[in-house]
Amino acid sequence: MKRYGYLNALLYLIGTVLFPSGCIVPFEPAGVQDSAGILVVEGMILETGTTIKLSRTVRLDEQSRDTSLLNAVNGARVQVIDGAHQTVAVAEPQMIDGKINPGVYAVNGEIAFTPGMKYALDIRIEEKQYQSAFVSPVMTPEIDEISWKINDDSSLDIMVSTHDPEGSINYYRWAFEEDWEIRAAYFGAWVFDPGNGTLTGQSLSGPNNTYYCWDSDVSKSILVGASDKHTEAVIKNRRIHRILPNNTRFSYLYSILVKQYGIDREAFHYLENVQKNMDYGGSFFAPQPSEVRGNITCVSSPHEPVIGYIVATKEVAARIYISTENMEGEDWHNCGDQHEFSVSDLLAAYLNGLGIIDVYYEDDEVDIFVCAPVRCVDCTLRGGTKNKPAFWPNEHQ
Are 324 and 252 in contact (CB under 8 A)? Predict the structure, then answer.
């Protein structure tokens, strides 16, 4: 599932001023109350994977920390049209696990860009029609390299390099998806059920073990870059992600999928302005609303403001894996002392937050269980799940 939260987060931030004391005081700029209900359009027209999100701004005093479901626009008709005003593709409500993803519309199939043709997004919401400007598709160059380096503070930077052999594409946007494998400090060989006092053995190669887990995330910032100030259309080692030390991403194996999109100059400046406003706690409405409204208009009511900028482009992607054994990850193996318990004491051990590492027999009669803090034997307590990515390069379960 792709995430589209940066606009909602920005709209929340414009209503608060953070003081050194830690108090958050509501602040409402003049005229912002009138900004409620503005249509926000997010997404791109892609050859594959076109996804559009529609939402509306809300009054600052009506927002909560999670506005993702408050302003979604459902029931719209969303389609891609060409320069001849012919429908090229229809975006249907996106379904995830059998449920509609609020406000998100996806094209189920590919869009074949015709050379020389321009494309636009056409949106119908009740009696109103919205349309983006017609734009020519940008044929995104391939990613030359995804590189990484460890900094003096043990953080890790991930960088991307690219160039256009024809020298005509100078503006780019990136997004990424990251996945990583988490390992517990110890393998929990047994699981104690306090309800009935039973023990269940775990196999390290079985699907239910709590030694191997996986976690994932996606980029949340607007990542753009330009090569127009260079003599050649080259971008070299543009940092797109920094991972701080003592992070579960450094547990065992890390992977990042970088997606690259060629964009036009106007889209670059639009996205750059939006990101600057986010970085400095600004808003869509200051200082110059025209800088963030983009290339979408309300055809049926031309004076109605609309936020968003639609481009047509090709997505290219590249993935790398980074073995994290030499990085400064969480000091998870320092889990304190191990403890030994008999069968009769396992409930007490469980109630004290301990998990079972191993068992051995003393005098061939008494079972002795070696225990450690459960956080050290259960990788799900570190944010991991058993949802292993289909592309993962090892056989762990």
Answer: yes
